[in-house]
Amino acid sequence: MIRITDKSKCCGCSACASVCIRNAIRMQPDDLGFPYPTVDTEKCNDCGLCEKVCTFHPGYSKKENLETSLVYAVRHKKIKEIETSRSGAMFIALSDWILDHGGVVYGAGYADHFRVVHKRATTKEERNEFKGSKYVQSDMNDVFKRIKVDLKAGLKVLFSGTPCQTSGLRASLLKTDMTNLYLCDIVCHGVPSPRFWKDYLALIEKKQKNTVIKVDFRDKNRFGWKAHKESFTFTNNQSYTYDYKFYKDLMFRNSCAVCPFTNFQRPSDITIGDFWGWQKAVGEEFGKDDKGVSLILVNSEKGKAWFETVKSDINYIETNTESCLQPNLQHPSVIHPERNNFERDYCEKGFEYVLNKYCKDPSKTFLVRVKKSMKNRIKKLIGK
Ligand SMILES: Cc1cc2nc3c(=O)[nH]c(=O)nc-3n(C[C@H](O)[C@H](O)[C@H](O)COP(=O)(O)OP(=O)(O)OC[C@H]3O[C@@H](n4cnc5c(N)ncnc54)[C@H](O)[C@@H]3O)c2cc1C
Ligand code: SF4
Ligand code: SF4
Ligand code: SF4
User: Fold this and answer.
1) Residue 83: exposed, middle, or buried by beta-carbon count in 10 A (0-12, 13-18, 19+)?
2) Is 195 exposed, middle or buried (0-12, 13-18, 19+ CB in 10 A)?
3) Residues with Cβ < 8 Å from 115, sequence gap 6 or more?
4) I need a surface site. Which of 1, 104, 190, 279 has the fewest CB within 10 A?
């Protein structure tokens, strides 16, 4: 049976829990809200299946991979799709094709008050919730089991998520026919803590004395694609910008420091990412409006066929692996040296304490930002 003795060896994909026919495994949050499997030893009969399907190691299956991934810079032909997606809206093109063929799409959306969870969509309206990156580990709940049911029913299924999730999903399907399964992963920097996200949201709501109704983890319409600014809209329809501390690397899951998927041997048919450095690779003209360029890696024969089906919806230029190298295609993120102290202090002293101690921009700055933002709005309103 699965025993987590070193937390960095588990990415929380939930594959082990989904295959246990005795329902002996539950995914339970740790102190930072990251899910880990716990085994009910009363129910477990030591069959070993859960260990067998765990693919969070360098030996994960690469048997579907092309010798070298095909590389493209991509932008959706509809500018509205680009404006509402994280980069070039390739995910929309890929998922449109699945939905247009009666299939279902799984991706990261929201439940409860902006808790990030994986969900199932059968319409474009439902699917649109998955647009855009959510910089929090998503809760997989029972989606692996539901995907198995969909595949058995003969539906086309698109699953989009982190590479550790797509790898775990494929392993958990065991002998299920995967002909209709289409896997799309992201180039992945790491996933921040769900607890930090929840507390962060509660803090800005407390400061605003209002409730958040919309979150934009990277507001490229106001700040451009390259900026990393989050926008929050409140019930009074005012939106404000804060710096959510994603890039502090302080609150990443431990497994992200030793991730085996930070390379070109992807556990998915197609990989999507931000094409940093596209200017050199495909020329300035392609993304000069600063709205976003998607990096696409086509990794399997199925990926090749899938890419062909969406070509009429996108503008694309082929390039190569050398021209799109970015850190997380070469090595795992380097986790902040204070990460474990951060976790200890968080548990012992709470959220506001760690925010002030570890984040350069302490919570006072939240108020400053809000005031500045309000001043600008008032100026605009009175036309000064
Ligand atoms: C945590 C995280 C780290 C990332 N790190 C990098 C990076 O280092 N380099 C890079 O080039 N790109 C990174 N990306 C990917 C990038 O931000 C865009 O998602 C990608 O460029 C696709 O953009 P798009 O316009 O095609 O589609 P979008 O509409 O923006 O894509 C959304 C897709 O991302 C999935 N998704 C969103 N949030 C999550 C989540 N929390 N967990 C799992 N899946 C999620 C959705 O299911 C959907 O498929 C990261 C994304 C996330 C969520
Ligand atoms: S299968 Fe996934 S959740 Fe289970 S132990 Fe392995 S990495 Fe962790
Ligand atoms: S060893 Fe078998 S029964 Fe026990 S938790 Fe793992 S899958 Fe379930
Ligand atoms: S960095 Fe690796 S382990 Fe962390 S979420 Fe991304 S794919 Fe999973």
Assistant:
1) middle
2) buried
3) 139, 194, 198
4) 279
Q: Give the model confidence (pLDDT) of 150-174 as tens digits.
A: 999 999 999 999 999 999 999 999 9
CB 333 within 8 A of CB 249: yes
Instruction: Identify the pLDDT of residue 360.
Output: 67
Q: Is 88 in the pocket of ligand 2 (CB under 6 A)?
A: no
* Of 10, 14, 40, 45, best ligand 3 pocket probe by most atoms within 8 Å of the beta carbon: 45
d(CA 286, CA 216): 25
Helices (H), 58-193: 79-83, 90-100, 124-127, 143-152, 163-172
Ligand with an atom nearest the CA of residue 7: 2
Task: Find out whether the beta carbon of 268 lies less than 6 Å from any atom of ligand 1.
Answer: no
The whole-number pLDDT of residue 185 equals: 98
Closest CA to 192 of 231, 230, 135, 248: 135
Tokens representing residue 252 in the block = 């990443």
Distances from the Cα of 216 to the Cα of 54, 90, 196, 242, 305, angstroms: 33, 18, 17, 11, 33
Ordered by where they begin, the domains of the chain are 68-191+251-329 (3.40.640)
Distance between Cα 340 and ligand 1 center (Å)? 26
Residues 6+ apart with CB under 8 A from 260: 56, 57, 58, 60
Question: pLDDT tens across 244-282, in order?
Answer: 776 678 899 999 999 999 999 999 999 999 999 999 999
Phi and psi at residue 102, to the nearest 5°: 75, 15
Confidence band for 298, pLDDT divided at 50, 70 and 90: very high
> Which band of pLDDT confidence, cut at 50, 70 and 90, is reported for residue 219?
confident
Q: Identify any residues that bridge with 25 across adjacent strands, giving them in sequence order.
A: 39
The verdict on the CB of residue 49 being under 6 Å from ligand 3 is yes
Three-state DSSP state, 6:
coil
pLDDT tens-digit map of 318-368: 999 999 999 999 999 998 899 999 999 999 999 989 988 887 654 444 443
